[in-house]
Amino acid sequence: MEECPNYDEIVVDLVSGFTPPSLGKITDKPEYSDVLQTEYNRMTFRAPLLRDAIKNERKFSDSIGFWRCIAKDCLLRVESVEDGTVTSVLPTEFHTYYGMKLYDEYLSGKDLKAIRSALTEYLPTLPFAYYDRCGCDEQREIPYSMEASSFFSE
């Protein structure tokens, strides 16, 4: 039987990574003192859903903007990883503080391409995205292709 991908998390190791810029009063707080000195090189996303596509369909005519909005909505964690060990996690409030600037200004083109490639691999329109039992006496599991929408196809 073909192995299904893990839809819980999509981990993207960034090629260039980024060091967050200062946000004035917010990054001056003592609890955020190490944020500006840390280079973050891994992002973890949840799988994109049809709900995300519908929410961002107004951006669909701009493919780049559309995918960046999808990535923003699906972002779970931004981490700093050294030798396979997570050393620091960007506080989740910074996802909101940086917003779309994270994708529009702070990440390199190579990192954005890696994110988009990873997210498109996990779309609900992948072939063999789920298995169902056939109606015959053998009750074999048959792979099905989910074709819920064309929002994700280009």
Detailed description of the structure:
The protein is elongated and about 65 Å long. The protein has 154 residues and is of the alpha+beta class. The protein contains five helices and six strands, in the order ββααββαααββ. It has helices spanning 50-55, 63-74, 93-98, 101-106, 109-121, and strands at residues 10-18, 40-45, 75-82, 85-89, 130-133, 141-144.
Strand tally is: 6
Structural class: alpha+beta
Spatial extent as radius of gyration: 18 Å
Through-space gap between termini: 30 Å
Spatial strand order of the main sheet: 1-2-3-4
Average of pLDDT: 81
Unreliable stretches, pLDDT < 50, 5 or more residues?
125-129, 146-151
Sequence of secondary-structure elements:
EEHHEEHHHEE
Question: Number of helical runs?
Answer: 5
Gross geometry: elongated
Strand content: 15-25%
How many strands, which pairing sense, and closed or not: the largest β-sheet? 4 strands, antiparallel
Topology:
Elements (H helix, E strand, L loop, with lengths): L9 E9 L21 E6 L4 H6 L7 H12 E8 L2 E5 L3 H6 L2 H6 L2 H13 L8 E4 L7 E4 L10
Antiparallel strand pairs: 1-2, 2-3, 3-4, 5-6
In short:
Helices cover 28% and strands 23% of the residues.
Descriptors for this entry?
154 residues; alpha+beta; 4-stranded antiparallel β-sheet; two-stranded antiparallel sheet; 5 helices; 6 strands; elongated
